[in-house]
Amino acid sequence: MPRDDTRMPHGRDDNRVMTRLTIRGRLTLWYAAVFAATGAAVLAAMYVLVRREFFTATDAVLASVTAAEGTLVPVPGTILEPSTGPAVALEAATTVARTDALRTIVLETGGVFVALAAVSLALCWLVAGRALRPLRNITDTAAALSHDTMDARIGLRGPRDEVRTLADTFDAMLDRLARAFQGQRLFVANASHELRTPLTIIRTAAEKALARPSRTEDEYRRALQTIAAAAARSDAMLTSLLQLARTQRGAALEPVDLAGAAAGAAASWPADAPPLHRDLAPAPCAADPAQLDLLLRNLLENAARHNVPGGAVWLATGGSWLCVENTGPVVDPADLPSLRRPFQRGGGRTAGSSGAGLGLAIAEAVVAAHGAAWTLVPRAGGGLSVTVTFPAG
């Protein structure tokens, strides 16, 4: 006979039924099951104790009657034989009474148990609903969120239990997402603005060169030089954006000596850049070599770009830190937080300086990927001092 594979074991059927229930229904059943088990245990214990007391009392009465050899008064409903002794007659009467009493106890306690089970089921349903109310609030809040509406929060009050911890964690996650979305929108807007400028220059130079039927070779050369410079600016911008995106994927930490990494980055220092003074002491730490090199190159390029004629740059390492300082324009301490954001330059976004304003933003991303710490301090007389401290290796 072929086997019927469509049949399913009862255990799996029960599991499917349980999975179709809501968490409130499952909690209600579990609460009720626990109550039923404990109630049944209490009633069974009570029955055993009452039965034992009945037998103990009966044995004591029989012992007293036998010792006294008294005359038994017939109990209504019992028939005593003339030859029946007082102890035997009393034992028969108490056995009947005891059996009736135990039967009554079982029936009455069983009825009370059924009633309490029904009441407990209703109460467990209410208690489960109240306990799960914060979870419903979390679900409703999550359902109301979108990319443009990230201001909804649960704001659960009450004792700091597991549900309160979950709600607070969910609110903290929403805060981080809101900041990330806001930063993403700002980044896209700034990137669009920055990339539009060289494209506009390219289009203007090309249209100007094509406006007349003929132009001199020098005019075409100047137009092409303008287009090449704008294209180079766009290429540098896209390269910086790609570097910034790569640093946000995390870092693969390994033992690194900051002094060796700094010496490697300083080896490619341009000849036409301000003088670079080095003080490189051994500085073992845990870092991603590729991202560390990216950090050093951006800090050094930033120090060289935002400098003054006759200025200088200093590079130092020690402990598990590195420091890059430069001379340059005076920096207002109130502008330091904004310099860490993308497309921000000293003196504001409209400040006349080369570069896309992504150097310190890339450094910020590298520091965050390493769990490191860094400080920006204005130097007396102008310029910046940037110190990055990595986890010890």
From TrEMBL:
<keyword id="KW-0808">Transferase</keyword>
<keyword id="KW-0812">Transmembrane</keyword>
<keyword id="KW-0597">Phosphoprotein</keyword>
<feature type="transmembrane region" description="Helical">
    <location>
        <begin position="28"/>
        <end position="50"/>
    </location>
</feature>
<keyword id="KW-0418">Kinase</keyword>
<dbReference type="InterPro" id="IPR036890">
    <property type="entry name" value="HATPase_C_sf"/>
</dbReference>
<dbReference type="InterPro" id="IPR003594">
    <property type="entry name" value="HATPase_dom"/>
</dbReference>
<dbReference type="InterPro" id="IPR050428">
    <property type="entry name" value="TCS_sensor_his_kinase"/>
</dbReference>
<keyword id="KW-1133">Transmembrane helix</keyword>
<dbReference type="InterPro" id="IPR005467">
    <property type="entry name" value="His_kinase_dom"/>
</dbReference>
<feature type="domain" description="HAMP">
    <location>
        <begin position="129"/>
        <end position="182"/>
    </location>
</feature>
<protein>
    <recommendedName>
        <fullName>histidine kinase</fullName>
        <ecNumber>2.7.13.3</ecNumber>
    </recommendedName>
</protein>
<dbReference type="InterPro" id="IPR036097">
    <property type="entry name" value="HisK_dim/P_sf"/>
</dbReference>
<dbReference type="Pfam" id="PF00512">
    <property type="entry name" value="HisKA"/>
</dbReference>
<dbReference type="GO" id="GO:0016301">
    <property type="term" value="F:kinase activity"/>
</dbReference>
<keyword id="KW-0902">Two-component regulatory system</keyword>
<dbReference type="Pfam" id="PF02518">
    <property type="entry name" value="HATPase_c"/>
</dbReference>
<feature type="transmembrane region" description="Helical">
    <location>
        <begin position="105"/>
        <end position="128"/>
    </location>
</feature>
<feature type="domain" description="Histidine kinase">
    <location>
        <begin position="190"/>
        <end position="393"/>
    </location>
</feature>
<keyword id="KW-0472">Membrane</keyword>
<dbReference type="InterPro" id="IPR003661">
    <property type="entry name" value="HisK_dim/P_dom"/>
</dbReference>
<dbReference type="InterPro" id="IPR003660">
    <property type="entry name" value="HAMP_dom"/>
</dbReference>
<dbReference type="Pfam" id="PF00672">
    <property type="entry name" value="HAMP"/>
</dbReference>
